[in-house]
């Protein structure tokens, strides 16, 4: 027999969703408005047009239990300008971070660490050095943590982009 | 042949076969109104408030099944319409609402009567458009009608800047809609339906739980046929009143917060709940984790988001309800179902033991008596609209509904002020029926100005005000759950409704006895004029039975002797 209770107590999971939408005025506010109106989380969101078409791809990282994720996918599908929604199970995820350090920090240490995370020095001026790194979100989080000891002046992270393996 | 954007609007409405538009003119929409003046293929009904224009279009749409159309101006004209849009969105009413907007050159400069209309309407419409280029206008209107009236219906809002309605361009109304991203599922999955039908046939206590979707997809008669064929009992939600017809042998009644004991017990005891176009609203389920917890759930809906939104579904089926129910009848013909006679007779015992009833009185009028009296007098000759509150629940409980679309109420949003304008839309769309609006003394004042519209356009709505000088439903909750602290719900100070009706040019009555009411009703029906019958009813009557908030359906407060 049914037990509805069990249906509500599923584990909270992190989910990467990609949404293909018609590239038109107002479409981003429809998506974001849906999330805020229904109380869903957006951990990160990236949008870029798909070249050579009238569509854009949004990559959204969200968290919720099974029922919420199921609703998010269905509600997104219901929006008129949405062509396709993918719940990714097995993906390559990448995130980029840009970090600016004062020039008096040990540049060689910074460079070595950046390389360990697929990054390198992007720019050097009289008073600052900028590095970038692109890697899986968890590694980027780790990298940002480590680099905090070099007293960064600024940290800028992109959202997540993802592709099924 | 080049024509203006404004003329494109009226020509498109003509192409869509629109025969009535409800609206209110203003600065930004004037070009369209100039074209309305020049044309003769549809009637324009000037309401006295934009909210009423939308509700009137809703009443028209709900009672006829056609798309309702309303036109308003920018800024305050549009913001007044928002409540109507939200109401239509919650009840899935097919509407196309056109609003004027300031010229494109002014957009974003906080111009006079400028508001971000599409920003406001986004969460309360099925879809919306801001038309910045006149070339898009015919396509957008075509798409709007298509979106409003397909899949799960809903309101579509089109915002048109004034310069777009003034410009000229070639006009060709598209024959086809080309929306690659919008393709609602009509046909059900056959294998899934077979599995569901097998589960139903094997169950011992199956129950059809029918919602407003049954009305929207025009399949009330198919549902009756399916129930008769399988001998499975039926409960209706508030929005589904009239699907089975009051005297149908298999109708157990309305379920939910103010549903019948038997219907709620049926939902509590069933081992196979078959949802037909219902959406497990909190006013139906009561405490969710206790709702139908012995049951396997079959959920049929055109909108996938409704399925498994609130309860776990064993057999989800996405598709048009009418098509699916026809499929169920076909596959049911070749199947053996269990014998459900004991189950049906158990529910009938419940019904006999605990019927819907009230303690009538000869010294004052009971509101339930008024509704029953109108039911006896008019029955299927009337289409019933209500406002929101106690009178709405009593009407749902005590009026003998006999056909779909006879019942017209604001269910999802619960909008006070819905009744009178919606009843105007009903009167305009159903000239062979009497349009009755049951209302309360609180609700009626929210759109009272529409009496003027009724009189001007000869829309003979009979408003029956069940006047208890209270904001009754809120007062009921204060009595039951707030230790009788009557905060701001005592409406002892009310206008003279009889004189008010007369001031607008309608007919007014004030009645305090049953005989007076019968005479007034008879007179109003004969005169076929807009009328208002102010009925002084028992002040302290409460709506029972009731599932208190947060309780399960089997924990009802029943109609005891408390209801004096």
TrEMBL record, chain A:
InterPro entries with a match to the protein in the record: Acetalactate_synth_ssu, Acetolactate_synth/TF_NikR_C, Acetolactate_synth_ssu_C, ACT-like_dom_sf, ACT_dom, AHAS_ACT, AHAS_small-like_ACT
Keyword check for Transferase: yes
Cellular component GO terms, alphabetical: cytosol
The keyword Phosphoprotein appears for this protein: no
Top-level taxon: Bacteria
Reaction(s) this enzyme catalyzes, per UniProt: 2 pyruvate + H(+) = (2S)-2-acetolactate + CO2
Entry keywords, A to Z: Amino-acid biosynthesis, Branched-chain amino acid biosynthesis, Transferase
Sequence ranges assigned to domain ACT in this UniProt record: 16-90
Pathway it works in: Amino-acid biosynthesis; L-isoleucine biosynthesis; L-isoleucine from 2-oxobutanoate: step 1/4; Amino-acid biosynthesis; L-valine biosynthesis; L-valine from pyruvate: step 1/4
Recorded GO MF terms: acetolactate synthase activity; acetolactate synthase regulator activity
Documented EC number(s): 2.2.1.6
GO biological process per UniProt: isoleucine biosynthetic process; L-valine biosynthetic process
SUPFAM superfamilies: ACT-like (SSF55021)
Function as written in the Swiss-Prot or TrEMBL entry: Catalyzes the conversion of 2 pyruvate molecules into acetolactate in the first common step of the biosynthetic pathway of the branched-amino acids such as leucine, isoleucine, and valine.
Subunit structure: Dimer of large and small chains.
Assigned protein family: Belongs to the acetolactate synthase small subunit family.
Identification of the protein by name: Acetolactate synthase small subunit
Organism: Halarcobacter anaerophilus
TrEMBL record, chain B:
UniProtKB keywords: Amino-acid biosynthesis, Branched-chain amino acid biosynthesis, FAD, Flavoprotein, Magnesium, Metal-binding, Thiamine pyrophosphate, Transferase
Thiamine pyrophosphate enzyme TPP-binding domain residues: 387-535
Domain Thiamine pyrophosphate enzyme central: 193-326
Domain called Thiamine pyrophosphate enzyme N-terminal TPP-binding: residue spans: 4-119
Gene3D superfamilies, sorted: 3.40.50.970, TPP-binding domain (3.40.50.1220)
Pathway terms, separated by semicolons: Amino-acid biosynthesis; L-valine biosynthesis; L-valine from pyruvate: step 1/4; Amino-acid biosynthesis; L-isoleucine biosynthesis; L-isoleucine from 2-oxobutanoate: step 1/4
NCBIfam families named in the record: acolac_lg, PRK08527.1
UniProt name for this protein: Acetolactate synthase
Organism: Halarcobacter anaerophilus
Lineage: Bacteria, Pseudomonadati, Campylobacterota, Epsilonproteobacteria, Campylobacterales
Gene (name only): ilvB
């Amino acid at each position: 027999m049914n037990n509805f209770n069990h249906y509500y107590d599923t584990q909270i999971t992190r989910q990467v969703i990609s949404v293909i939408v018609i590239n038109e005025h107002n479409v981003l506010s429809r998506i974001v408005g849906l999330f805020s109106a229904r109380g869903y989380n957006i951990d990160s969101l990236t949008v870029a047009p798909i070249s050579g078409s009238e569509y854009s791809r949004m990559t959204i990282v969200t968290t919720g239990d099974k029922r919420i994720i199921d609703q998010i996918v269905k509600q997104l599908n219901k929006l008129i300008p949405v062509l396709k929604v993918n719940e990714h199970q097995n993906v390559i995820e990448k995130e980029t971070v840009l970090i600016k350090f004062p020039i008096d920090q040990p540049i060689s240490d910074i460079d070595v660490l950046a390389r360990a995370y697929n990054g390198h020095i992007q720019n050097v001026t009289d008073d600052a050095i900028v590095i970038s790194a692109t890697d899986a979100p968890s590694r980027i989080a780790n990298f940002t943590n480590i680099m905090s000891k070099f007293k960064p002046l600024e940290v800028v992270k992109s959202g997540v982009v993802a592709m099924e393996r | 042949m080049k024509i203006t954007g404004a003329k494109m609007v009226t020509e498109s409405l003509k192409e869509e076969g629109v025969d009535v538009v409800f609206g209110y003119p203003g600065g930004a929409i004037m070009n369209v109104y100039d074209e309305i003046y020049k044309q003769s293929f549809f009637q324009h009904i000037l309401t006295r408030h934009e909210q009423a224009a939308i509700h009137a279009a809703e009443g028209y749409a709900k009672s006829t099944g056609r798309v309702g159309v309303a036109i308003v101006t920018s800024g305050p004209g549009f913001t007044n319409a928002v409540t109507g849009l939200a109401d239509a969105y919650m009840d899935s009413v097919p509407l196309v609402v056109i609003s004027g907007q300031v010229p494109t050159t002014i957009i974003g400069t906080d111009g006079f009567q400028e508001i971000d209309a599409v920003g406001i309407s986004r969460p309360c419409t099925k879809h919306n458009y801001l038309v910045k280029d006149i070339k898009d206008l015919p396509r957008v209107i075509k798409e709007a009608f298509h979106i409003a009236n397909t899949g799960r219906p809903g309101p579509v809002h089109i915002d048109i800047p004034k310069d777009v309605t003034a410009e000229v361009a070639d006009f060709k109304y598209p024959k086809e809609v080309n929306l690659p991203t919008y393709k609602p599922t009509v046909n059900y999955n056959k294998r899934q339906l077979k599995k569901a039908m097998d589960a139903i046939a094997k169950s011992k206590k199956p129950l059809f739980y029918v919602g407003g979707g049954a009305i929207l997809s025009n399949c009330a008669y198919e549902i009756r046929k399916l129930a008769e064929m399988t001998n499975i009992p039926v409960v209706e939600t508030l929005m589904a009143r009239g699907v089975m017809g009051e005297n149908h042998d298999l109708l157990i009644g309305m379920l939910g917060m103010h549903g019948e004991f038997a219907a709620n017990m049926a939902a509590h005891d069933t081992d196979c709940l078959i949802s037909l176009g219902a959406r497990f609203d909190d006013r139906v389920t009561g405490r969710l984790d206790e709702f139908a917890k012995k049951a396997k759930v079959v959920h049929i809906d055109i909108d996938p988001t409704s399925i498994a939104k609130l309860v776990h579904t064993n057999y989800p089926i996405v598709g048009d309800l009418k098509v699916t129910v026809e499929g169920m009848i076909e596959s049911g013909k070749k199947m053996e179902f269990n014998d459900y006679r004991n189950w049906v007779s158990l529910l009938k015992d419940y019904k006999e033991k605990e019927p819907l009833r009230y303690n009538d009185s000869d010294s004052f009028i009971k509101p339930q008596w008024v509704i029953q009296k109108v039911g006896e007098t008019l029955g299927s000759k009337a289409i019933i609209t209500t406002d929101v509150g106690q009178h709405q629940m009593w009407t749902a409980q005590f009026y003998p509904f006999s056909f779909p679309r006879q019942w017209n109420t604001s269910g999802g949003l619960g909008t006070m002020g819905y009744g009178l304008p919606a009843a105007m839309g009903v009167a305009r769309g159903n000239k062979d029926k009497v349009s009755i609006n049951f209302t309360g003394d609180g609700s009626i004042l929210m759109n009272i100005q529409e009496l003027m519209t009724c009189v001007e356009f000869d829309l003979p709505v009979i408003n029956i005000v069940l006047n208890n000088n209270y904001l009754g439903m809120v007062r009921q909750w204060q009595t039951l759950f707030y230790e009788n602290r009557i905060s701001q719900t005592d409406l002892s100070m009310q206008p003279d409704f009889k004189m008010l009706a007369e001031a607008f040019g309608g007919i007014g009555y004030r009645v305090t006895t049953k005989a007076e009411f019968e005479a007034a009703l008879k007179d109003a029906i004969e005169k076929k004029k807009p009328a208002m019958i102010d009925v002084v009813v028992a002040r302290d009557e409460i709506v029972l039975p009731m599932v208190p908030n947060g309780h399960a359906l089997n924990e009802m407060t029943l109609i005891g002797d408390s209801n004096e």
